[in-house]
Amino acid sequence: MSRRTRPSRFWETLAVVVVKPLSRLLVKRDWRHGERLPRTGGIIIAANHLSWTDPVLLSHFLFNNGRWPVILAKSALFRVPLLGRALTGLLVIPVERGSTEAARSLRISSQRLQDGCAILFYPEGTCTRDPALWPMVGKTGAARLALESGVQVIPIAHWGAHELLPYGEKRPRLFPRKTFRVSVGPPVDLSGYAGLPPQGDVLREATADIMAAITAQLAELRGEKAPEAPYDPAGR
């Protein structure tokens, strides 16, 4: 497997030419604590998920702060003509949801982390279903990768993408122009799990710590108090 941490010049230039002007056109920016992002080495970036637009807007933020985001996306998108080629060129990792191949994306992610990539994870696995749009209970993939690889987990919260394109809608709400707010938190302290087997309660507790760190950044952005416990769509 290639040890590239960024796409080829062609694909990177193409993405930048498309994404940066589009992002500037669609939203105003309120970006905070970009200096907390390590500029080199493998890291896991764990973020909340509000809208189909936030991967693009968040990628602009990460690129401007020195990191190329390696994103995970549904494998079905790779079967779309031209789009699949572009996703491969941009180092996007395919995810086979609900199949025995689902673990393959974690294996690829682990290799990319060793190569020094910045992997953008949405631990919730989908856009939040919390009625007030707070982060939900997370899935354990990001925590497993972090504990197995030893890389830092950098929590990022964002707010505003849902105003541009609410989840489930196909037509963006362009006016009035929205503000995309981002806040980077300090690395999540997972040192208490060192040496423990990455399974069961260990993964669930580490995941809860990651989600709590994301939620803390979101509370700062929103200027509101977060709920005591995260929304659990399985146990609502």
TrEMBL record:
InterPro entries in the cross-refs: Plipid/glycerol_acylTrfase
Keywords on record: Acyltransferase, Transferase
- Keyword Transferase in annotation: yes
What EC identifiers does the entry list? 2.3.1.-
Superkingdom per UniProt: Bacteria
The cross-references to SUPFAM superfamilies, in alphabetical order and at most eight, read: Glycerol-3-phosphate (1)-acyltransferase (SSF69593)
What molecular function terms (GO) are annotated for this protein?
Answer: acyltransferase activity
Q: Where is the Phospholipid/glycerol acyltransferase domain?
A: 43-161
Q: What is this protein called?
A: 1-acyl-sn-glycerol-3-phosphate acyltransferase
Please report the organism this UniProt entry assigns to the protein.
Nonomuraea coxensis DSM 45129
